[in-house]
Amino acid sequence: MTATTYSWALLRAGNFRLDGGSMFGLIPRSVWSRAALPDERGRVGVQHNCLLLERATGTDGPKLVLIEVGTGDKLDTKSREIFSLEERTILDALHEVSCKPEDVGAIVTSHLHFDHSGALTRLAKPGEKPDWHGAASSMTGGPREHGVKVTFPNAMIYTQLREWDDALANKSVMTRTYFKDHLEPIRERVRLVDSPRPFPSGYAAGRDELPLTPIYNRTTPLAGVPGVSVFLTPGHTWGQQAILFKDTRGRTVVFTPDVLPTVNHVGAAYSLGYDVEPYTSMISRHWFLEEAVLNDWLLVLDHEAGNPCQRVRRNATGWYTLEAEG
């Protein structure tokens, strides 16, 4: 049987800005600001990076697979201003590559925060019958309601079981990131994955400890999407996952979630203030980078505003360096 490989395109679903202190956690501003210049409000520029995969070999599964979808169009004006959100969504990016949302057969999200999964639904247009009506996503907490449509009507949506449960229960250090208007309308479309954890539940890994279980034993092929697999990278959320596939050039491509959101987060202690467990993020970052070296992964970083395609190399200090790939 021919292995399934994919051609793919990087889709930019819009620039936005996040608080620099939150993006770099305990790292002092005097250090992180050398690489990530903040604006007058202390925000640094990031990007909604997404991938559109087109099946090139193999005969089963959807022809088009989308990895990540970004924030979308549902936030109110004040919330959009907080993040300096560009007036652009994944639908604009798909239009530029002549892809219609109804052509997408599967979506894989790293996690369900609004900036990764908000565009799973969109605002209903005038005259459209909403698929769901209720509380609107907002950073300001106003009692606003609106009607939304499922953005990708023919797509199944893949996420980790732990991530889905935590999203519904709003288990996050951020009070407003899992919103009902991008979760409730997709309930019937969600396909849950339960990948093995890097370390046993309840085990406190040492600072430099690597998992004993090989990565290939912790990687879960997606049922119905041949050639695409996921594995847990806990820390930012407990159910965050990375997404892996083979491309037509023979490369193993790994879409990298918020364990390493930008090239400036390669350092051991560069965990986000948004992480539910910064220490776990540090542990995950170590073994993730080590696996990237051992397996020669091509990483695609989820929030890098420059070139998100990076290789990982060991350096003379015993840690890792990123090298951009065109």
What does this 3D model show about the protein?
The chain has eight helices and 16 strands. The chain is globular. 18% of the residues lie in helices and 28% in strands. The protein has a single domain (5-249), classed as Metallo-beta-lactamase, Chain A. The protein has helices at residues 20-24, 29-32, 77-83, 90-96, 114-117, 161-169, 180-183, 278-295; strands at residues 5-19, 43-57, 64-67, 106-108, 121-123, 132-135, 145-150, 156-160, 190-193, 220-221, 228-232, 241-246, 252-256, 298-301, 309-314, 320-324. A seven-stranded mixed sheet has the order 10-11-12-13-14-15-16. Strands 1-2-3-4-8-9 form a six-stranded mixed sheet. The chain starts with a strand and ends with a strand.
Number of strands: 16
Can you write the helix and strand succession as a string? EHHEEHHEHEEEEHHEEEEEHEEE
Calculate the mean pLDDT score and round it: 96
Outline the biggest β-sheet. Answer: 7 strands, mixed
Calculate the terminal CA-CA distance, rounded to whole Å.
Answer: 31 Å
Could you tell me the strand content as a percent range?
25-35%
Low-confidence stretches: none
Count of spatially separate domains: 1
- At CATH level 3, the topology is Metallo-beta-lactamase, Chain A
**Neighbour order of strands in the largest sheet:** 10-11-12-13-14-15-16
Query: Which homologous superfamily in CATH is the superfamily?
Result: Ribonuclease Z/Hydroxyacylglutathione hydrolase-like
Evaluate the radius of gyration. 19 Å
Secondary-structure arrangement, i.e. CATH architecture:
4-Layer Sandwich
